[in-house]
Amino acid sequence: MLRGEDFQTSIFxxxxxxxxxxxxxxWDPKRAPGFALGYAEFAVHDYELTPAMIYTVNFGLANxxxxxxxxxxxxxxxxxxxxxxxxxxxxxxEEYSLKxxxxxxxxxxxxxxxxxxxxxxTWRQRPSMSWRLVPTLLHEGCHAIMDDMFxxxxxxxxxxxxxxxxxxxxxxxxxxxLRNDQHARWVxxxxxxxxxxxxxxxxxxxxxxxxxxxxxxxxxxxxxxDIGWSVFDFxxxxxxxxxxxxxxxxxxxxxxxxxxxxxxxxxxxFEQAINRNWQxxxxxxxxxxxxxxxxxxxxxxxxxxxxxxxxx
Length: 312
Prior knowledge:
By secondary structure, the protein is α/β, with parallel strands linked by helices. The protein is 55% helix and 12% strand. It is built from twelve helices and seven strands. The protein has helices at residues 51-72, 90-101, 133-149, 155-167, 176-194, 201-205, 210-216, 222-237, 240-250, 253-257, 265-277, 281-311, and strands at 8-13, 17-22, 35-37, 40-45, 82-87, 111-114, 119-123. It has a four-stranded mixed beta sheet with strand order 4-5-7-6. It has a three-stranded antiparallel beta sheet with strand order 2-1-3. Helix 1 (51-72) packs across helix 3, helix 4 crosses helix 8 (222-237) and helix 8 crosses helix 9 (240-250). The N and C termini lie far apart (48 Å).
């Protein structure tokens, strides 16, 4: 298990069906008409991996790969795969993370991707949060996609894009838990805007480790994810040119050459690329972002009111 030799290949297709099998069993497309080789490879521990779950994850990954290729103007490698290790018990997830990665976790860490071993580690989630497993798998799958395409990227971009693209598909938005969670995010962000608590955007874009978010948000690292998600949403939805700009900046020569140099140089190069290519630079971008939060929060409050009325 610690060497990652227990992962199984998966195929999906048919009527929302998916199957996993040992890598020693070579897949013959002729024997499974209507099925395709999935991006996902699974290793599970005290967890039932259903055909529907295998299908859902592979269906989501296929769409995510296409979305990333469109937005970031890059392709994944031909043999690209996403390896998921899913534990049924939190205690096993905790023990494995500590033993394999020397990583101390808490229930708030729903899962993580290791660039070194190319595996995603997670668990079934608390009973009240079981709806969070698929979004977590796809969020971490986005990290694997970005790692394959670029390797290192600005910290906020990695988390913001994974939150946004991992939860964007319309079929996922049908889940009340996820949809209402997103509405609540906009309301929280707008409250911060009204109270003057949103971080300076330039300072946020230059953050390059969780400790910065810990300091920036008084120990509430989760707000760092919310901010990145909202900035990415601004790029993706306000105007088609904004999305094109995002792809261009990620592929900026200065940004790519700054990878692996540490000390926040990558984030600095990204911020400088914005100033060179976005009219008005980060200062004007920040104003547009604030306005976008206000608009989205107004929409979110209406939707949350509808949800509360339904529950009565």
